[in-house]
Design goal:
Shape: globular
CATH class of the largest domain: Alpha Beta
CATH superfamily of the largest domain: DHBP synthase
CATH architecture of the largest domain: Alpha-Beta Complex
Distance between the termini: 50 Å
Structural class: alpha/beta
Largest sheet: 11 strands, mixed
Helix content: 25-40%
Strand order of the largest sheet: 1-8-2-3-7-4-6-5-9-10-11
Radius of gyration: 20 Å
Bound molecules: adenosine monophosphate, magnesium ion
Length: about 325
């Protein structure tokens, strides 16, 4: 179906309009603190199937269910462990998704056939207002075409989804900029399935944290991956992206000796003045890099970049999330200098 996609604000009136689209089985582009999502009623299998279609998302990649109240964890999940409640007290609402045994009311299409469901309560005001006004839990993957960088502004969503969905709420730029931290529970331990703004270091105050191997390693073909999203090439602009690992001096030496048509650098802000090739810097701190990574990757498409040399971020704290996304954007191509 072809839509004239309407750009809404987060006014009470517009939220009401968006909530009616959701309760009527439609899809709305929704701002959250992490990235923009494509939201539909999580219990409406047909509406959720439309999300997969709009994104071109593989059917075996489950959606996260977004709730408007901590008490709703119990409504969609069962056997919730004590650690989950403690984490919810500290991090909900916020960018933490917990994978839990699902209740039957979550249809198979939402959980991609798994008997678990990822649930989170977003902290973004417009997202919470939309969820609460619609009276639904909403399934919401990132609002990009499958494979592309996640959208961190309403303009990014329009770029990918114009004509494919009825409406997008413009809630400004997403403050976190990378998708939520995803965790599962295993014999009293926490397994980190996808790094995000809530870091492994913070989680380890609650239980031992196992960092899933697929956060930093490519899956072999046919290998079972606990977090299905981790097996796809992802977050990627059209250009070939290569991660350059080394200190600032060696990075600059490398990029300055690799100039060419369509070749760009993606340095830290502090490297920019030394770059002799065109560049889009993406911040200095891990938090800045998380907030600006996807916008920078999208910008390379606008510029028609063919090759991007990105300086490798730190790998601890929020940096692990930035590194994990960049690795996928680069198809795991790293050069050490
Ligand atoms: P996105 O909606 O694009 O942020 O992607 C959501 C990601 O969360 C998926 O690609 C999975 O990797 C992860 N996820 C969601 N639900 C589950 C689940 N039940 N089990 C494991 N991982 C999940
Ligand atoms: Mg996504």
């Amino acid at each position: 179906m072809q839509y004239k996609t309407e750009l809404l604000t987060s006014s009470e009136e517009d939220i009401k309009k968006a909530a009616e689209i959701i309760s009527g089985g439609g899809i709305v582009g929704m701002p959250t603190e992490t990235v923009y999502g494509l939201a539909a009623d999580a219990e409406n299998a047909e509406a959720v199937a439309e999300i997969f279609k709009a994104k071109g998302r593989p059917q075996d990649n489950p959606l996260i269910v977004h709730i408007g109240d901590i008490a709703d964890f119990e409504k969609y999940a069962k056997n919730v462990p004590e650690t989950a409640y403690k984490l919810a007290e500290k991090f909900c609402p916020g960018p933490l998704t917990m994978v839990l045994p699902k209740r039957d009311r979550i249809p198979d299409v939402t959980s991609a056939g798994l008997d678990t469901v990822g649930i989170r309560m977003p902290s973004h005001k417009a997202a919470l207002a939309l969820i609460r006004t619609s009276g639904k839990a909403v399934a919401a993957p990132s609002a990009n075409l499958s494979g592309s960088p996640s959208p961190t502004s309403a303009a990014h969503v329009m770029n990918d989804m114009n004509g494919k969905i009825p409406a997008v709420i413009d809630g400004g730029d997403c403050p976190v900029g990378v998708e939520s931290t995803v965790i599962a529970f295993e014999d009293g331990k926490i397994r980190l399935l996808r790094p995000g703004f809530v870091s492994a270091e913070e989680l380890s105050e609650f239980a031992e944290v196992i960092i899933d191997r697929h956060i930093t390693e490519a899956a072999e073909s046919g290998e079972r991956v606990l977090s299905p999203g981790m097996k796809y090439k992802h977050y990627s602009p059209k250009a070939n992206v290569t991660i350059i690992e080394g200190n600032g001096t060696d990075y600059i030496k490398f990029v300055n000796s690799h100039s060419g048509e369509g070749v760009y650098a993606m340095p830290f802000d502090s490297d920019e003045s030394y770059c002799e090739i065109p560049c889009i810097p993406y911040g200095d701190s891990s938090e800045e890099q998380a907030a600006r990574l996807f916008a920078a990757l999208r910008k390379f498409d606008e510029l028609g970049a063919k090759q991007v040399y990105a300086r490798c971020p730190l790998k601890n704290g929020v940096g692990l999330a930035v590194y994990n996304r960049l690795l996928r954007a680069a198809g795991f191509e790293i050069i050490s200098v």
